[in-house]
Amino acid sequence: MDGKTYDPLNELTPESFMELMRESKQLPKSSQPPLGKFVELYEKYLAEGYEVLSIHLTEKLSGTVNTASQAALMTTGEVEVVDTNFIARGQAFQVLEAAKMAQSGNHTMAEIKERMEKIRSKTKLYIVVVTLENLIKGGRVGRVQGLLGSLLNIKLIAELKEGQLEETAKVRSNKKILNYLLELVGAEKRKIVALDIEHANGLQMAEAFQTAAKKLLGISSIPIFDADPVVATHAGNGAFAVMYYTE
Questions:
Q1: 155 pairs with which residues across the strands?
Q2: Where are the beta strands (DSSP E) in the chain?
Q3: Which residue ranges form the domains of the chain, and what is each CATH number?
Q4: Which of 15, 40, 139, 160 has its CA 20 to 30 A from that of 230?
Q5: What does the record give under GO molecular function (predicted)?
Q6: For 111, how many CA atoms within 13 A lie in the half-sphere containing its CB?
Q7: Secondary structure tally for the chain: helices H, strands E
Q8: Model pTM?
């Protein structure tokens, strides 16, 4: 940002990043880890006798998984690279299940990947973009559409399908946003196994949905997470997302 490089894990908090982004003249730029870092990490664990399952966000939004695949070809051991087709907690559902199965020691790589694919096929992610400013700056929507959105105070709701964002609705009020999302989760015919929320300085809306969804679905735990800098950069200030998967 503005010529300075930050490590998001050690040098930024969600709050400090949002403040820096708000003051920055241009959108922050992100970079995937270099090829050599992947090779180095893979070789480290292969040398210790492990197989490696390398799990990544959708190729449609980042080239990271392609770099990981190139690195895997440069190693001599068992490295499996997986594109989750999701981001954020939508990706985490697959990661956490894979980790649990791996730690049990009772499953093969093929069984873990098969379970991940099942979760992936039953995962849905909806994101609410309150301001289109960052999407416009990042080239994610046309300028005319963005101008109309700002003039009419329209909020965009999009679904991440097959790794790509697809517009599902435009609404003008927070109440309509909540009603729309609650209707979506309430209409699910299969039981929701896990439902998580992420936000980029949109905690008020996230908490409002959390409270209503708990009552509607009878789910005791619906955690709320801060969006990471990459997601927050493109989603913009005030955005929040709802992610879940079903049986």
A1: 171
A2: 52-56, 79-83, 123-129, 155-161, 164-171, 192-200, 224-226, 239-246
A3: 35-121 (3.40.50.10170), 123-246 (3.30.1180.10)
A4: 40
A5: lipid binding
A6: 9
A7: 10, 8
A8: 0.89
